[in-house]
Amino acid sequence: MKLNVTVEAVTDRIRQRSRATRGDYLARLELAAQRKPGAERLGCANVAHAFAALPGDDRLRVVAGRAPNIGIVTAYNDMLSAHAPYQHYPDLVKLEARRHSATAQVAGGVPAMCDGVTQGTAGMELSLFSRDVIAMATAVALSHDVFDAALLLGVCDKIVPGLLIGALHFGHLPVVFVPAGPMSSGLPNSEKAKVREQAAQGRVGRAELLAAESSAYHGVGTCTFYGTANSNQMLLEAMGLQVPGSAFVNPGAALREELTREAVRTVLAMTKARRFAPIGRIVDERCIVNAMAALLATGGSTNHLIHWVAVARAAGITIDWDDFSDLSAVVPLLARVYPNGSADVNQFQAAGGPGFVIRELLDAGLMHAEVMTARAGGLREHARAPVSDAAGALQWVETGSSRDDSVLRPASQPFSASGGLRLLQGNLGRSVIKVSAVPQDRHVIEAPCRVFDSQEALHQAFQANELNRDIVCVVRWQGPQANGMPELHKLVPPLAVLQDRGFKVALVTDGRMSGASGKVVAAIHVSPEAAAGGPLARLRDGDLIRLDANSGVLQVLLGSAEWEARSAAPMPASLLAANGQGMGRELFAMMRRHAQSAEEGACAWL
Fold first, then answer.
1. Strand 521-527 to strand 544-548: parallel, antiparallel, or no bridges (unpaired)?
2. Cα–Cα distance for residue pair 260/152, rounded to 1 Å
3. How far is CA 338 from CA 196, 320, 441, 516, in A?
């Protein structure tokens, strides 16, 4: 299928925009790749330290036999359901490596925090910057520089982008991601959301709410809604950075263990065949566009409009929200997974999963087919699904037609002709909006605003019944420089209640909202942020705001002279005093100070 003209044009302008930085990146990659292996290149004391803890046979294999040595970077901890399955993965990896005359070492661990645990608390202000901490921890792990390849064990929100950014700074290495899979289905996400809204109205108490939440989040594996964690997995499939079809196989399944073994075989195949497919080569402009297309086609997390900008920059590539918006206009929505539908990721997988989506996008000319991946078979391999034969060996089969057209549809009959993400622009700055979960009659809202300086203030106003009218709620001082850009998902239940009461409701914020958010129309990631002198700092209660997702407009309806003459409010003294204090937030002051805008990836390392 001929490549779609818009996909081709966006890719070309990214390539032109990134020519100098990408060239510099590849030059550094080439220099690193030309060196001898670490066991030959390093001094004897360095080598002795690096391999002192290895069993004798492994030490002989890697030093004298020049066997490939795999570095494992793991996000294992046993309090987070998504990462708990990783406990025994290193032992399995080492055993499989030995079977193929190679060695493996745990190079290091990275922190893994959960937005679900910290949501609405002070700890959430560490969340976004934990991505850059993870990237740095990945770099520290790989800096021992004795590895011929790497396996990255991580799943969730900031963990995968952080691992990917860190690995791209070692772009000369072959790298494969190793997922752990989603938990089995519990209380349906839509039922959980109803209980949350009832709790926001005081109709159920803490016991009922906790019971519902515990029925939804009940075992090992990722959460089952299509938020940032599961969007990560879809994007890695589309980039060809993990074993095809490995994203959504449940922990504990027999197939899961064999897919982990296959990850070892895959990364070793790159080292032994000397096929020059390091991660820095794989992640090029076409690969990034493929990831963007997969995100749009599945209604994935808006967090990736920040994270994948940062990922691209780590590979010397510059993308922006115009690129997402232009692709969204031509990439159809093929999946309905909560919050864009009622299905969870297990139902998505059962209906055809990532393989179905990738095949449809390739056949429609909406993804680049001729790209390098971690496996020699290319991206078409990711359009198939893994199964075990009678002997337990892996094979891949065609995904066929959708097994549930309420969850997955072909590109010829999509749920929507566009991907559901829009760029909003106007005198309030640049913002993004996810409309795939919002009915068409809510895409345009014009109403007076109420300005809040914190999400707690909005909750208090809701409880006091001060918001029962058509309203645009503005929550500012929530950007990277202000307080680390915490996610504001706890705003959804009260706003949804107002909407259910018949009012027209919208949210405008320089903060983040998750892929788990929908239902209420929200202009998010407003840039520049209020703390950087952005226009949200000029708003006053009662200003009339127009949010038009159809025409891409976000503006305050004031005369230009009056608007320009209005001074920006300073951040309240109470916020200045509290921000960055307690729960370790002091340690992140440098990151807040140096953070770039959301559209620039909120990077603190550039």
1. unpaired
2. 11
3. 15, 26, 20, 7
233 close to 349: Cβ distance less than 8 angstroms: no
pLDDT tens sequence across 403-426: 999 999 999 999 999 988 899 999
pTM over 0.90: yes
Q: How far is CA 419 from CA 37, 407, 433, in A?
A: 45, 15, 11
Q: Is 602 left (phi over 0), alpha (psi -120 to 50) or beta?
A: left
**In degrees, to the nearest 5, what angle opens at C-alpha 184 toward C-alphas 150 and 514?**
70
CB neighbour list of residue 319: distance below 8 Å, 6 or more residues apart: 14, 288, 292, 308, 309, 312
Nearest CA among 581, 11, 601 for reference residue 285: 11
Average pLDDT of the residues in 17-30: 98
pLDDT the model gives residue 244 = 98
Q: What is the per-residue pLDDT for 516?
A: 53
CATH code reported for the domain at 421-600: 3.50.30.80
DSSP string, 357-401: HHHHHHHTT-S-SS---SSTT-GGGGGEEEEE-TTS-EEEEE--S
- Could you tell me the pLDDT band of residue 518, with boundaries at 50, 70 and 90? low
Q: How far apart are CA 552 and CA 547, in angstroms?
A: 8
Task: Determine contact, residues 309/600, Cβ cutoff 8 Å.
Answer: yes
- Cβ neighbors of 463 (< 8 A, separation 6 or more) are none
- The SS3 of residue 74 is strand
User: What one-character-per-residue DSSP string does 240-296 give?
Assistant: T-B-TT-TTPPTT-HHHHHHHHHHHHHHHHHHHTT----HHHHSSHHHHHHHHHHHH
467 three-state secondary structure: coil
- Spatial contact of 438 and 521, defined as CB atoms under 8 Å apart: yes
Distance of CA 61 to the CA centre of its chain: 38
Which of 190, 132, 187 minimizes the C-alpha distance to 163? 132
- The count of residues in the chain is 606
Question: Which percentage of the chain shows pLDDT scores above 70?
Answer: 99
β pairing state of 103-109 and 69-74 = parallel
The span from the first CA to the last CA of the chain, in angstroms, equals: 39
Report the relative pairing of strands 175-177 and 394-398 from DSSP bridges: unpaired
Q: What is the 3-state secondary structure (H, E, C) of 501-528?
A: CCCCEEEEECCECCCCCCCCEEEEEEEC
- Whether residue 469 is predicted with pLDDT greater than 60 in this model: the reply is yes
Q: What pLDDT is attached to residue 420?
A: 82
Q: So where are the chain's domains?
A: 5-34+67-184+220-398, 189-218, 421-600
**DSSP state at residue 3:** P
Letter for the amino acid at 491?
L
Q: In terms of Cα–Cα distance, which of 516, 101, 599 is closest to 338?
A: 516
In this predicted structure, what is the pLDDT of residue 553? 97
Give the residue-averaged pLDDT of 541-567.
96
Average pLDDT (125-150) is 96
Amino acid at 429: G
Residue tagged 């297309």 (tokens) = 293
- How high is the mean pLDDT of the chain? 94
Distance CA 512, CA 416 (A): 25
